[in-house]
Amino acid sequence: MTDVNSTIKNEIDSQDVVVFMKGTPQFPMCGFSGQVVQILNYLGVPFKGVNVLDDMAVREGIKAFSSWPTIPQIYVKGEFVGGCDIAREMFQSGELQQFLSEKGVPVKSAA
Q: Which helix (H) or strand (E) holds 81?
């Protein structure tokens, strides 16, 4: 495993939900990353944001790691979920909430 793959794997293993994104959860640097942050915040899901703009090796490495060409990328309990479009579709259908619950990640119930 290359150094960047080790770094990525360590990040994914560091918390139940990890988002590789442009910017930070407090200051997303692209609309797609911002949408993912909004969805997870709305659901009350604690997550770690990894700013790929801080490290070009991670930015390119995550795409190879997941075989997914775009950022953001969401991982839940080490499992790759997808990017913004998939997260949005899963959220709108209720599938994301169910998936998170099945993985043991607490989700705020809808009011």
A: strand 79-82
